[in-house]
Amino acid sequence: MKKFIPWIIVAVVIFGLFSWGKGFNNTAVALNENVSEAWGNVQTSYQRRNDLIGNLVKTVQGAADFERTTLTEVIEARAKATSISIDPNNITPEQLAQYNQVQGGLSGALKSLLVTVERYPDLKANQNFLKLQDELTSTENTIQTARTRYNEAIKPYNVHVKTFPNTLLAGLLNFDGKPYFDAESGSERPVDVDFDFN
After folding, report:
1. Which of 29, 12, 135, 166 is nearest to 89 (CA)?
2. Nearest-CA neighbor of 156 among 32, 36, 70, 53?
3. Could you tell me which of 107, 93, 88 has the C-alpha nearest to residue 38?
4. Of 46, 112, 135, 42, nearest to 82 (Cα)?
5. Residue 12: which H helix or E strand, with range?
6. Domain tally for the chain?
7. Distance between terminal CA atoms of the chain?
């Protein structure tokens, strides 16, 4: 009986390692799928905004004397924003920063467009424009929610693959940590509010 004890111990150790590896892998895959789903929701929200911007630009182009440079900036920013595609399984901090920068550029161009519209009473009264403006506001809120949920999905994944001893298997099985969405550049500066009562 004593000659079987080493084999039993080896079998128990092998079974324990197998169970740990299987549990790590299956949990990492499930958490990674949650991250991929959350990233898909982020992209869907941005796509919704891009579609609305296309309709908004067409509506604004109807105002013949509207500044063409502002429209051109929005159109170019939209083209840049739609040209970047990221695989959520291999996302790097640099890719996410670039994606965030391009989307921030589009947000800035869109804000410029909406500020410029204030000088055009006929356009401000246009029902299609008002509806698109409301939908854009709603979509911006949806984007913020999707980005927050993406970050929330990343946290358990990163905790799972970065804690010891899981980090040992994460390196072997190519489960790397994923970057979080940061605030858009410039958002750390206070908003400049200027009330002109003259």
Report:
1. 29
2. 32
3. 88
4. 46
5. helix 5-61
6. 1
7. 99
Q: Are 46 and 143 in contact (CB under 8 A)?
A: yes
Q: Please report, as a single letter, which amino acid is at residue 37.
A: E
| Residues with Cβ within 8 Å of residue 156, at least 6 apart in sequence | 31, 34
Give the separation between CA 39 and CA 147, rounded to whole angstroms: 8
Cα–Cα dist 190/91, whole Å: 30
Q: Which amino acid is at 154?
A: I
107 domain residue, yes or no: yes
Q: In this structure, is residue 154 part of a structural domain?
A: yes
The answer to the question of residue 100 being in a domain is: yes
CATH of residue 54's domain is 1.20.1440.20
Residue at 29 is within a domain:
yes
pTM: 0.74
Both tokens assigned to 197: 């009562």
Residues of the chain with pLDDT under 70: 62-67, 183-198
114: containing domain: 20-172
Single-letter residue type at 12: V
- What tens digit of pLDDT does each residue of 8-47 get? 888 889 998 888 889 888 999 999 999 989 999 998 999 9
